[in-house]
Write a structure and sequence with these properties.
This protein is α+β, with helices and mostly antiparallel strands and about 100 residues long. Helix content is about 35%, strand content about 15%. The longest helix has 13 residues.
Amino acid sequence: MAGQRRSDTDGSNRDRKRSTRQQERQPYDLAEIDPVELMACLREVANKGGALRLGLTRDGGALAIGIYGDGNMDPYTEYLRPGEDAVAYFRGLAIYFDELPNKK
């Protein structure tokens, strides 16, 4: 039926949620982050009045990067998954913030 969720016999959606959570995901390895690149990125972000929030997703499968103060109205979160190039990501973010106009 259009617009209805697939549910089990008691009308809940538990089976679908449970099956999604059971999928095994490769955990994000924090050793993929180069501390020198991260510090260079943090320096650029802070110099422009911004901030970053770093953490892992609930399942540990991705690095969650909260970005504040880049001119967007609301903070937002980007995700790095295992195998994605963290060095390139943080270099790119540093360049992005470096090119932002200075806050008055």
